[in-house]
UniProtKB/TrEMBL annotation:
Keywords: Cytoplasm, Cytoskeleton, Dynein, Microtubule, Motor protein
GO biological process terms, semicolon-separated: microtubule-based process
Pfam families: Dynein_light (PF01221)
Gene3D superfamilies per record: Protein Inhibitor Of Neuronal Nitric Oxide Synthase
GO cellular component, one term: microtubule
Compartments reported by the entry: Cytoplasm, Cytoskeleton
Organism: Brassica carinata (Ethiopian mustard)
InterPro entries for the chain: DLC_sf, Dynein_light_chain_typ-1/2
SMART domains listed in its UniProt record: Dynein_light
SUPFAM superfamilies: DLC
GO MF assignments: dynein intermediate chain binding
Family that this chain belongs to: Belongs to the dynein light chain family.
Designated name of the protein: Dynein light chain
Length: 95
């Protein structure tokens, strides 16, 4: 597990959920090759959907841009090893 090496860059998630996000990311890195970002993101999304209900989105990579609207209290952006992780639950209206 690598939670201690993760660096949160921005988040509005409760701390317990942030820790869970980093734990799922660490698990995914133990299971998948670091270059398999799609499988890593899929693993994290599946875990969040199962634990916190459907509608979660996950982006993993070393260089990406994005623009989105998220539900309040569901956003985290962090780095673990060489990858950046963006996890959020989508919203139909700005929060």
């Amino acid at each position: 597990m690598l939670e201690g090496k993760a660096m949160v860059e921005d988040s509005d998630m409760p701390v317990k959920m942030q820790v869970q996000a980093m734990s799922f990311a660490s698990q995914a890195l133990d299971i998948f090759d670091v270059v398999d970002c799609k499988s890593i993101a899929g693993h994290i999304k599946k875990e969040f959907d199962e634990r916190y209900g459907s509608g979660w989105q996950c982006v993993v990579g070393s260089n990406f841009g994005c623009f989105f609207t998220h539900s309040k209290g569901t956003f985290i952006y962090f780095q673990l090893e060489t990858l950046k992780f963006l996890i959020f639950k989508g919203a139909s209206t700005p929060s």
